[in-house]
Amino acid sequence: MSTATSKTTTYFNLIDGAWVSSSSGDAFENRNPANTDDVVGVFQRSTAADVADAIDAARLAYDRWRLVPAPRRAELLFRAAQLIAERKEALARDMTREMGKVLDETRGDVQEAIDMTFFMAGEGRRQYGQTVPSELRDKFAMSVRQPMGVAAIITPWNFPMAIPSWKIIPALVCGNTVVFKPATLTPLSALNFVKILEEAGVPRGVVNLVTGGGGEVGSAMIVSDDVRIVSFTGSTDVGRTVSQHAAPSFKKVHLEMGGKNVVMVMDDANLELAVEGCLWGGFGTTGQRCTAASRVVVHERVYEAFLEQFVARAKGLTVGDGLDPNTQMGPLVSQGQLDTVMQYLEIGRSEGARLMCGGRRPSGAMYANGFFHEPTIFADVAPSMRIAQEEIFGPVVSVVPCRSFDEAVAIGNGVQYGLSASIYTQDINRAFAAMRDMYTGIFYVNAPTIGAEVHLPFGGTKATGNGHREAGVAALDVFSEWKSVYVDFSGRLQRAQIDTADL
Ligand code: NAD
């Protein structure tokens, strides 16, 4: 898995049960975003040839793995869930070091992988199909799930263990084999996860890990004819490319992409609760969640009161190294992400939004080597402004005034994305109307836009997704196909839709 020198540890790909270096011999460094002097590890910069080897291994392993009874496959997953739980703290620390979010959140990320693995292991005994009466006599009719083959798994860096688990675990329990390419910014958490699957007894070739860039490794996975399903989470732009490149081979493509989520604060809302929710929704994970509450639409009657409290609380957040227990908001994941945030600050200013707090990198020695940014709030944002339309993926919240519930819903729906939305109100009628009318995959009442649980479907509409859902039992639909089976035990030819059963 790794070799260590006094300075850094080098980690390898997992292909066909062996930890191997890239065929190119090239590697890349992964650095701590809170302190770029800290090298987390050195990882393989893989090539299309490595991907081809991994796909071959997965293809060969599939012949055996698909025939292992699902409850037996699930036993390995139960074991894996237990191992993750035993190592939760160390896994969370590695994750904070490689991507920056605070320890409480990385513990939550690991917990999500534990929850998903236990949940899906249970599905090993519950891959229910349907049995239905045939329209003809002495004929039996049923549907069964069947695995698909090699699954290509491509993941982002913001949930370095949770998101891989949402994909790899259901893929495995359904009987598929996996080639996994994690984000270049979070290969260690991916490797930790795969290592545990190996330790739990997942046979060689069933899960293969190939680290490296999206352009080289990701693209090679998508175009291969030996891959039957691609499950991708990441930006909408890259998702579109994935979809286009996968189309000629007619493989199944499951896409989870960007968001521009909204919290709607009505005039009868519990304001303190709404402020609490917007802080967590807007600045949790430094705003780098696909479900982040990056827009807050507030009824004009409570607008100033809300803003005053929200800004005061945001100013009070402690920014720092996520490993420090006092830190409430960690750094951004990379220089690129920090640059994007700073560009959007300029865009917001030039569009005429009112900067209420933040807008700068914090000063001081402890911030000198990290990608830190202050929690930032823009007020008086018009729904059409770019900061209210485009995903920023950083600690920047746009507050938009509205005059009515109907206007809030229209503003909320008025973006290209459709992942998550929420409403703060004491009026149950409004809550239900919003639940019905927001065209998103996830909706919350009196809670922020983040906080999904693993046993319900997760995903979004419009430019956020392509109609699939991960997590919950819905994930089984992503990683399996239906086969309808008819067994005629009449001993004669019976023609459906032509012959009629006697009364
Ligand atoms: P990204 O699109 O840049 O990268 C995602 C993954 O795709 C990475 O592993 C990357 O290496 C790979 N990739 C890049 N180019 C590729 C190509 N041409 N072919 C194949 N693979 C390629 O996204 P990111 O910056 O890692 O993550 C942030 C984005 O992810 C945000 O837009 C966020 O909203 C989204 N996200 C969505 C969800 C969701 O469930 N909807 C969850 C988390 C993150």
Q: How many separate domains?
A: 2
Structural class: alpha/beta
Oligomer type = single chain
What fraction strand? 15-25%
Mean pLDDT: 97
Low-pLDDT parts are none
What general outline do the C-alpha atoms trace?
Answer: globular
Sketch the major β-sheet.
7 strands, mixed
Care to count the β-strands? 23
What is the fold named in CATH at topology level of the largest domain?
Answer: Aldehyde Dehydrogenase, Chain A, domain 1
* CATH homologous superfamily identity of the largest domain: Aldehyde Dehydrogenase, Chain A, domain 1
Widest sheet, order of strands: 16-17-18-15-14-20-21
Using the coordinates above, name the CATH class of the largest domain: Alpha Beta
Named CATH architecture of the largest domain: 3-Layer(aba) Sandwich
| Rg measurement, Å | 24 Å
Descriptive account of the structure:
This protein is 37% helix and 22% strand. It has a seven-stranded mixed sheet, sandwiched between helices. A five-stranded parallel sheet has the order 11-10-9-12-13, with helices on both faces. By secondary structure, it is of the alpha/beta class. The longest helix is centred in the N-terminal third of the chain and has 21 residues. The radius of gyration is 24 Å and the shape is globular. It has two domains: 259 residues, Aldehyde Dehydrogenase, Chain A, domain 1 (3-Layer(aba) Sandwich), CATH 3.40.605; 184 residues, Aldehyde Dehydrogenase, Chain A, domain 2 (3-Layer(aba) Sandwich), CATH 3.40.309.10. α3 crosses α4. It starts with a strand and ends in a 15-residue tail after the last strand. It binds nicotinamide-adenine-dinucleotide.
